[in-house]
Amino acid sequence: MFETLSDRLTSVFSSLRGKGRLSEEDINATAREIRLALLEADVALPVVREFISRIKERARGEEVSKALNPAQQVIKIVNEELVEILGGETRQVRFAKNPPTVIMLAGLQGAGKTTLAGKLAKWLSADRNTPLLVAADLQRPNAVTQLQVVGERAGTPVFAPEPGNGVGDPVEVARASVEHARRNNHNVVIIDTAGRLGVDTEMMQQAADIRDAVSPDEILFVVDAMIGQDAVNTAQAFLDGVGYDAVALTKLDGDARGGAALSIRHITGRPIMFASTGEKLEDFDLFHPDRMASRILD
Ligand code: GDP
């Protein structure tokens, strides 16, 4: 995860080692190198600009600390600014006062929504929740079956249209699932919605209709981190078309660069809530900005 960015930053810092004090020239040269590292990591330009201007400002203004040498001071500043750009605090799930808490997943096909639904169910169950998975992706023929397989592995029941009832209406399925959860003591409902390979208005409308029918407590935008800046564009399209409360980043295990993770919060104003780091149901947790920053600078 983020190896390329990590390596680049490490080499930037190593060139500062041994310096007694940082000149204006040193600060500018370091900022230039960090800028290149971020651009190479596919971080969105406005984010790079903001990041660099804050680093420069702080490096110039930083009080001389006896405890830290200049290289350590720059690392400290970069670390703090990385935490900030990644969202600062860990975003926790907001549970509804009156259960069930409704969590809706939206995103492109292949983003990892169905897998994430299972991961989330398992993660919630470990904390004594009683989730219900809902198959509201009725676009792909085997999406329901796929969710059932995931549900089985997560040990979570799946609410799906009755076989033989035709394709079914995803909005009705979503609505009925909340009723079903209420009657059967499921305190969380996780709704998997349909995605397409690209953003299209019909898909957006369907997600918006489901949203309007069930008023989710949390809408999560699920996005593949490996697509870099494209993730930012898709994130913007979903923000305009459906709206969401937080982001779930998937496939971080295959993301050497980190551009999506570092850009999405700043560009959308929505925090990253979950990180998915593999195909197994256990490869999943809340996204912790501070741990992620340490990992980048490790
Ligand atoms: P959906 O179309 O959005 O429901 O996406 P799926 O859940 O079907 O996931 C698409 C593919 O990505 C599947 O092959 C998953 O196994 C894989 N996948 C999902 N999440 C992760 C992840 O965090 N890491 C890796 N390496 N693969 C993932």
Automatic annotation (TrEMBL):
Residues 271-284 form the SRP54-type proteins GTP-binding domain. GTP binds at residues 107-114, 192-196, 250-253. It catalyses: GTP + H2O = GDP + phosphate + H(+). It is an enzyme of class 3 (hydrolase). Its EC number is 3.6.5.4. Keywords: Cytoplasm, GTP-binding, Hydrolase, Nucleotide-binding, Ribonucleoprotein, RNA-binding, Signal recognition particle. It is found in: Cytoplasm. Coiled coil: none annotated. Belongs to the GTP-binding SRP family. SRP54 subfamily. Involved in targeting and insertion of nascent membrane proteins into the cytoplasmic membrane. Binds to the hydrophobic signal sequence of the ribosome-nascent chain (RNC) as it emerges from the ribosomes. The SRP-RNC complex is then targeted to the cytoplasmic membrane where it interacts with the SRP receptor FtsY. Part of the signal recognition particle protein translocation system, which is composed of SRP and FtsY. Composed of three domains: the N-terminal N domain, which is responsible for interactions with the ribosome, the central G domain, which binds GTP, and the C-terminal M domain, which binds the RNA and the signal sequence of the RNC. This is Signal recognition particle protein. It comes from Nocardiopsis tropica. The chain holds residues 1 to 298 of 532 of the full protein.
